[in-house]
Amino acid sequence: MTTKPTPRVRVPAKAAAGEVIEIKTLISHEMESGQRKDAKGAVIPRKILNKFSASFNGKPIFEAEWFPAISANPYQSFFYKATESGEFTFTWKDDDGSEYTAKNKLTVG
Amino acid sequence: MDFQGSGLSRRAALKTGALVAFASLIGTRLAFADAPTVAAELKKLYGDKAMAEGKIKLDVPEIAENGMVVPINIEVDSPMTEADYVKSVHIFADGNPLPGVVTYTFTPACGKAAASTRMRLAQTQNIVCVAEMSNGTLYTAKANVKVTIGGCGG
Asked: Complex ipTM, two decimals?
């Protein structure tokens, strides 16, 4: 049932200098909360994405620490003030230590 | 339950099924008497520091039909300059087995201290939001969400 998480990110390709753009991200992940029990009554171990972070040209801009209360296939949107052209890096950290990344280019002008 | 001939849609049938499944879980939730509370979490973070109302626009539905996916949107009023910006925002749900929902860390580069996500809510409860500004002042906001079908984190 576990599929490899696939990040999906929506960033405008172009922005005017000083424009505040909205960035929308979505990643497929079951976000197992560690609260559920299986048919035998045993607790299903927690496995969530615990941290989402975004950086632009290597500089961190936004971070979200997620707790088990975040829904499956977590969605996260936030804003960024465009000043220069460059590349976004989005990183999702899994409880099991794996990391998923996505990169998006932004042209300012 | 008799679905036959009752004209229930597939959606309604699924919802009823989910309700039955979660009803049993809600019972076990109430046993968490010594679980961390929102007040305790806030004390751990900020001690007894005073918090003012305002500045935060906490946007949650008044009634959430499905506790598994409840949209939450926050926006903190701030110029977001190097001198004056929103450092972090903590969001808690006081009726969940674990109160933490999400912690945002903003930077002046965000341009706007706003973010939205989707959360799970086990039952009807209050959402508490605390924003810390760059100068250390704290603002808080609270909203009640009525949950028809609990999310129970599962």
From this structure: 0.89
